[in-house]
Specification:
D-Amino Acid Oxidase, Chain A, domain 2, eight-stranded mixed beta sheet, alpha+beta, four-stranded mixed beta sheet, FAD/NAD(P)-binding domain, single chain
Length: about 500
């Protein structure tokens, strides 16, 4: 099979999806290739979800693109209904030296153009965040920072892109790239697709390398030496829904050379989340968690917020960030092939900067001869689910409804109905695994972590997704993939033993 296009985008993380979304009404034939079975399966789905203020990065593209990207999020939320909230953020200081350090960060932020920064006294901090450690001496407050659901953003972007004509090819792994081997001297990309590893080829005049952890491999295929990656893993702890409601802002400690340090935040869904640490030179496929690292994260987080209940832990996870040797984002044409644009090394604050990264990629594609125009807003995307506040007596009745009734509750913890699951499956992106349902509807993200609802979700998938290539991909879910994740009972035991 050979597919021809004007633009190939490798990678369906937030940067690849944002690039496709911006270009969706350009009148171009656009193809997005993704080796995983769904969008947002790499670093996009496993990060803190923080929309940073834009004050911390000192130079380069990370410093240049963070703040402009942040400013685009309110309009993105109005267009896509993916889950974004402005909460503000604080960098907490616990000593005189740290308080002096806040002044330097404030000066850096103003140099970056950030205009909503303020130094707070201890009394101001405690008035705004009663759960913060009373030993705090000062904080740097950024009013416009916020939190988002990164995987729901990426799903929303690709939904609208595909609805506008972008072709999405999941489970498609790039094996070779010939920059001049396609029709009329186009770029030929050879891939293996699906469980049968069928060979497919794509040919286009231009290409964007947004392959995340695989972007260095793509660069090696081009033999241009432009992307040289190492990998840094960060582990997180996620607590039960509602546990984050007593935290108003994103709470940081003083940054270090390895990053922004351990943060304490609520997710957009009200879960308390703490992390990440920074483990350098890791395997890009290593997303395991370990008790020792998580215990260290927990102790450091308690420096910011002393009252964190380990009994409320529901999940541990980790994300791997691709770090280029330059220390910066790599967003530029290939040094050997000017019709190929790299968008690589997207470490923190990559989620925040993603809208501005896509804008820069668009400019570079235009400079390379591809007329990409930006389409910002269609009619607002209809969200898959809304508020869920079904009272207990009604919840029990709806759980007991027969299969096939759209009002039947499939996920007890998150109150997910059959109608919502069917809505997710009938949209423009293929949904072939329980995890794909989970990312769209939250079925399996509650207190029991899918013990109740997963069999129901699998049953529903079997009834409605048998036409999917390769069938239902049950074994590709994290819970059944062999990845080692610390369980809640293991973590609680370790914390008790540490005293």
């Amino acid at each position: 099979m050979n597919q021809t296009a004007d633009l190939i985008i490798i990678g369906a993380g937030v940067v690849g999806a944002m690039t496709a979304w911006r270009a969706r009404h350009s009148g171009l034939r656009i193809v997005v290739i993704e080796q995983a079975n769904d969008v947002s399966m790499g670093s996009t789905k496993a990060n803190s979800g923080i929309i940073h203020g834009g004050y911390a990065e000192k130079s380069g593209l990370r410093g240049k693109l963070c703040y402009p990207g942040r400013l685009m999020y309110p309009e993105l939320e109005r267009a896509l209904n993916f889950g974004f909230r402005t909460t503000g953020s604080m960098i907490l200081a616990f000593s005189e030296d740290e308080a002096h350090g806040l002044e330097a960060i404030l000066a850096q932020g103003r140099q970056n153009g950030v205009d909503d920064l303020e130094l707070l006294t201890r009394e101001q901090v405690m008035a705004m965040e009663s759960e913060v450690n009373p030993a705090v001496s000062a904080a740097l407050w950024c009013r416009g920072a916020g939190i988002a659901s990164p995987y729901e953003l990426t799903i929303a972007l690709m939904e609208q892109a595909v609805e506008a004509g972008v072709r999405f090819f999941p489970s498609t792994k790039v094996k070779a790239i010939d920059p001049d081997g396609g029709t009329d001297g186009g770029i030929r990309v050879t891939c293996e697709q699906g469980v049968s590893n069928q060979t497919v080829e794509f040919t286009a005049g231009h290409l964007v390398n947004a392959a995340g952890a695989g972007s260095g491999v793509v660069s090696a295929m081009l033999d241009d030496g432009d992307v040289r990656l190492t990998f840094r893993k960060g582990e997180y702890l996620l607590f039960r829904k509602g546990s984050g409601e007593r935290i108003n802002a994103v709470l940081f400690q003083m940054p270090t050379a390895l990053g922004k340090g351990i943060l304490v935040t609520s997710t957009v869904h009200g879960n308390l989340m703490i992390g990440p640490d920074a483990q350098n030179d890791t395997d890009p496929e290593d997303t395991a968690t370990d008790v020792s690292s998580l215990a260290t994260i927990f102790r450091e987080a308690m420096r910011s917020v002393p009252r964190i209940d380990p009994a409320h832990l529901i999940r541990t996870f980790s994300g791997v960030r691709a770090i280029d040797a330059s220390g910066d984002f790599v967003i530029k044409p290939s040094s050997k092939h000017p019709r190929i644009i790299h968008a690589a090394g997207i470490q923190s604050p990559g989620l925040t900067a993603a809208p501005a990264i896509a804008e820069l990629v668009q400019q570079q594609l235009n400079d390379a001869g591809l007329p990409v125009s930006c389409s910002w807003v269609d009619a607002p995307r209809r969200p898959i689910y809304g508020p869920r506040n079904v009272p207990t007596p009604e919840l029990k009745e709806r759980i007991a409804l027969p299969k096939g009734n759209p009002e039947r509750i499939v996920c007890r913890c998150e109150q997910v109905s059959e109608a919502e699951i069917l809505d997710a499956m009938q949209r423009s992106l293929p949904v072939t695994s329980p995890d794909a349902v989970k990312r769209r509807t939250r079925a399996g993200m509650g207190w029991c972590q899918g013990q109740f609802c997963r069999p129901r979700v699998v049953e529903y998938l079997r009834d409605h997704a048998l036409e999917a290539p390769g069938g239902i991909l049950e074994t590709e879910d994290v819970a059944h993939s062999g990845i080692s994740r610390v369980r809640g009972d293991e973590f609680k035991k370790a914390i008790r033993e540490l005293g």
